[in-house]
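Severity: low
Component: inverse-folding endpoint
Summary: output formatting inconsistent between runs
Steps to reproduce: submit the following structure tokens with default settings.
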């Protein structure tokens, strides 16, 4: 049995039993059987079901948001936004998938030749707890539209969310086993990857988990898409609007209690505005109200698990031992729940965990730099490459930095990095490979089949 702990109280709220190998294999077989006819379902019907899923999400928004909050501690207001975003991605692909997947005609010596995007089969999605609805929908919505079927291996601390997701697709009228939740552990996940009926695998999670899954899938010749960690740099140039920059940086660093792969984590500030930025940033973070995630006035909820809080605190302590300086925070709170206070570290040098590692919580590393060249050097001096942002009043300068110099899958100017169904999402280096969202994500798990006809 697996226990589920409420992060705000530390109390067990439910337990669940994992599937055995026989039941898991039967679920895979049933999902494969459904794929055999789902792949031939007209696009219009697929779109109808996806619009219905959006309706189900909107109608059940409050209940789904409360479920998210109870299981992983997200502020209720953020959980509502997450459910709304899931409805958006459903409507986006219901409207655009057919156009994105239309045949591409190519002029050759044939009478007719073109590329047709065909589905692959049942896909295994190994999904994380930090956005337990959104991460699943941004993978499932386009792939169901592409004609694939879905097997979900969700994080063990959000089983209620996993079950609710399966129920949403049933309520939307999808055929049985088009979307199936598998309550399985890591060992059984490896066997699912090896199952010949599973066509491909996607994972959102840690670098270690991504490397393991890619190796397992590679051994059996299956494609993977990986969205892994991030240590996103935010560059504050000397001509930035400091008030705006601080507001956006605060919002990004505290989103989801700091547990976001694309959350701002390293703040690289020009020396001319460093003192002003740091003081305003400190004031903003210090004023944050930490508490019950259900309370609408709460600005910072708990971390999702006790082990995650302990890891974060160790990273902070080790960074301080290696020369970093604490501006605020850095103390483990007493009392119930897995809370951690907003924390700012400065003088973060190489060798500090805060320099090299992803800090998955409300901890900010602030760097002072003398010029643009040093800012870019520090920004790119990381094994990660998920997102980056630049703040400047000279948008041409910001665009050049974003386009040509920052090493990341998404670079924003004067705004926080965020996922959007209209734009491709993914990273480089240790942040993974492949893309989700946009037409790029829709085509990742399709076969671009060349068709050639000569009379």
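Observed output (run 2 of 3):
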């Amino acid at each position: 049995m697996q226990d589920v702990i409420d992060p705000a109280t530390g109390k067990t709220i439910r337990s669940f039993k994992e599937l055995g190998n026989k039941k898991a294999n039967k679920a895979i077989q049933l999902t494969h059987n459904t794929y055999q006819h789902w792949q031939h379902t007209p696009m219009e019907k697929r779109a109808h079901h996806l619009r219905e899923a959006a309706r189900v999400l909107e109608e059940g928004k409050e209940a789904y948001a409360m479920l998210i909050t109870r299981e992983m501690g997200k502020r209720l207001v953020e959980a509502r936004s997450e459910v709304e975003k899931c409805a958006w991605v459903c409507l986006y692909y219901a409207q655009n998938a057919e156009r994105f997947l239309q045949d591409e005609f190519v002029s050759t010596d044939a009478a007719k030749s073109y590329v047709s995007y065909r589905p692959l089969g049942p896909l295994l999605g190994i999904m994380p707890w930090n956005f337990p609805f959104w991460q699943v929908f941004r993978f499932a919505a386009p792939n169901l539209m592409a004609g694939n079927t879905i097997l979900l291996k969700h994080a063990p601390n959000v089983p209620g969310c996993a079950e609710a997701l399966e129920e949403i697709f049933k309520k939307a009228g999808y055929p049985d086993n088009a979307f199936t939740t598998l309550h399985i552990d890591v060992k059984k996940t490896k066997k699912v990857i090896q199952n010949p009926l599973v066509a491909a695998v996607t994972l959102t999670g840690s670098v270690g988990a991504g490397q393991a899954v890619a190796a397992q899938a590679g051994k059996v010749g299956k494609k993977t898409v990986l969205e892994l960690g991030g240590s996103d740099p935010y560059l504050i140039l000397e001509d930035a609007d400091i008030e705006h920059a601080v507001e956006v940086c605060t919002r990004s660093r505290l989103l989801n209690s700091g547990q976001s792969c694309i959350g701002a984590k390293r703040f690289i500030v020009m020396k001319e505005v460093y003192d002003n930025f740091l003081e305003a940033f400190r004031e903003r973070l210090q004023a944050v109200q930490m508490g019950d995630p259900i309370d609408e006035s709460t600005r910072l909820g708990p971390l999702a698990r006790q082990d995650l809080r302990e890891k974060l605190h160790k990273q902070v302590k080790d960074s301080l031992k290696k020369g970093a300086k604490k501006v605020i925070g850095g103390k483990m709170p007493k009392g119930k729940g897995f809370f951690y206070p907003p924390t700012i570290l400065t003088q973060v040098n190489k060798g500090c965990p805060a320099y090299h590692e992803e800090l998955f919580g409300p901890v900010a590393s602030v760097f002072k730099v003398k010029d643009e060249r040093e800012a870019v050097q520090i920004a790119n001096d990381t094994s990660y490459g998920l997102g980056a942002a630049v703040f400047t009043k000279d948008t041409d300068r910001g665009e050049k930095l974003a386009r040509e110099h920052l090493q990341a899958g998404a670079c924003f100017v004067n705004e926080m990095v965020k996922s959007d169904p209209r734009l491709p999402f993914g990273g480089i280096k240790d942040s993974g490979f492949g893309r989700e969202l946009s037409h790029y994500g829709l085509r990742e798990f399709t076969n671009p089949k060349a068709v050639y006809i000569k009379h």
